[in-house]
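Title: Comparing notes on inverse folding

I've been comparing how different people in this forum approach sequence design from structure. To keep things fair, I'm posting one structure and asking everyone to reply with a full sequence. Here's the target:
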């Protein structure tokens, strides 16, 4: 996701790209492959697996399918995917630390296919997780669903944020303010910013052909985050759990098309044993 640039005026200048059918075709392909990569990971997420091993799997998957992982070397990011465990909000760097029973983690994959970016992330559970972790993941999934349902020409980016924030807060969770969704297409991070909070009517008017992500980060505790000295890993200041889901969408005449749905019905890859 993009860092919200504090103090920056909202985009009202008409410089947001409106893409045509060829772009939608390209985004469909990139979005589907990114979703397939997340599907592929589901059976590998288990205790004792390292996030580095998951990173290797996605790098291999991408290269095997003629794609390239956009995060690799992006602004100095050292890996192919982001893996954000428990109180890590986003941009966790895959490493040698093994996953443990009860962890929740977000895996964020962005693949470039024929020049187009498909950007998507989901939550995974490592074995049995706590009821409060499961609740947070469920709230975050529903928050993204409501954000997507608010995408319609004539509404604004503020409608998306308001839908997410009002729901998350009604569930006694908080919305991270420091990172947002973003326009994308042939570039990774473009205008507009998609804030996950705000008021209906704020931001920019939604128009057919716009391409962007919605990727709410929702916390069980307070919304505040800090970035660790590695320059990337964002964590909750109160060390409470954080969750995130992300889809890439394109605005249509009547609503939006979601490019990154799982082809295997694994958008919500959490199963509870009891
Ligand atoms: N995929 C992330 C997003 O949703 C961005 C990751 S950039 C990286 O926008 F450099 F941290 F990998
Ligand atoms: Co994104
Ligand atoms: Co992403």
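Reply #1:
Here's my take.
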């Amino acid at each position: 996701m993009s860092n919200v640039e504090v103090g920056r005026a909202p985009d009202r200048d008409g410089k947001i790209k409106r893409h045509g059918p060829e772009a939608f075709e390209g985004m469909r392909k990139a979005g589907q492959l990114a979703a397939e990569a997340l599907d592929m990971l589901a059976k590998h997420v288990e205790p004792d697996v390292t996030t580095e091993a998951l990173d290797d799997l996605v790098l291999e998957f991408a290269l095997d399918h003629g794609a390239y992982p956009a995060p690799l070397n992006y602004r100095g990011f050292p890996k192919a995917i982001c893996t954000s465990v428990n109180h890590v909000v986003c941009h966790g760097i895959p490493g040698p630390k093994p996953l443990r029973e009860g962890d929740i983690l977000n895996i964020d994959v962005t693949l470039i296919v024929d020049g187009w970016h498909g950007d998507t992330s989901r939550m995974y559970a490592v074995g049995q997780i706590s009821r409060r972790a499961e609740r947070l993941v469920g709230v975050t999934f529903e928050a993204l669903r409501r954000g997507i349902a608010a995408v319609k020409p004539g509404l604004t980016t503020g409608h998306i944020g308001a839908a997410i924030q009002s729901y998350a807060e009604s569930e006694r969770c908080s919305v991270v303010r420091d990172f947002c969704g973003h326009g994308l297409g042939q570039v990774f991070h473009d205008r507009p910013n998609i804030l996950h909070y705000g008021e209906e009517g704020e931001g920019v008017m939604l128009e057919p052909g716009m391409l962007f992500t919605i990727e709410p980060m929702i916390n069980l505790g307070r919304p505040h985050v800090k970035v660790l000295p590695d320059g990337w890993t964002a964590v909750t200041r109160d060390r409470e759990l954080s969750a995130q889901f992300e889809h890439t969408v394109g605005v249509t005449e009547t609503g939006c098309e979601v490019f990154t749905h799982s082809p295997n019905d694994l958008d919500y890859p959490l199963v509870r044993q009891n």
